[in-house]
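Sequence only, no structure available. Ideas?
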Amino acid sequence: MNSPMTTWGVGDYPSMGRYLQPVAEAAVEAAAVGPGDRVVDIATGTGNAALLAAGRGGRVAGIDFEPSLLRLAEERARCAGFDLEWLCGELEALPVPDRSADVVLSVFGVMYAADHQAAARELARVAAPGARVVLASWQPGSVLPAMGQVLSAYLPPPPAGSGPPSRWGEASALAGILEPHRLRVTATSSGQVILRFSASEEAAEFLVRTAGHVMSEQDRLTAEGRWDELHRDLRRFVEHRAEHRRDHLLLPLDYLLATAAEATDRPPVRNTPRHT
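Reply:
I predicted one. Tokens follow.
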């Protein structure tokens, strides 16, 4: 296999992707993907949402900026007997024509764009008239954004950008990102991904192993004598954030699922109950 081009291809992201499958299911359901719908799945990763949309009869293009993940997604599609288009491209410059998608999906993907407004402009550009745009994003203060604060002492500063990715996970902030590009948030709901572990040590190891931007710094941090220290800090974080049971612990990851459409008027946003 070729070497990864970005940190998203380092480490074991596919293991985290398996936990995220129910969120992809919720996103595809919210988008009401049907036979013949032209679907674009942005930052598709290993193809969770793209494959589900194809299973409902959609004509799907999965886009990601990490070729090694696209290769895994393509292999999954081949094993499932689906014929999808897989494209390598950036969040701020999607390699698809204007107004070419009836459904635009992004499950924990577009939120990581360095330029939020450019990414939102691309969502609007590729959405055909009447398109459904469905986005899943981690909520501010939830486990993964908060973990980033713990890790910041060990990692290089992130590239300059428009703000934290979790802006996409707060309804009013998301509206502020999308509305300049005539996309109106029409519905939101909150959900959780539940990670289950036997102990905080197992949880910390999983979170590190599945985070490519952390794994890419392992050699440097080991040479500095700080790799074990990072693990200790992350174990303390897990112990504080987890729900403890007698023989295991649960780590809930909170996210926002938002549906948007081309703005023609401005009715109030509909909030729906939490789902898991």
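The longest helix spans residues 227-241.
Hope that gets you unstuck.
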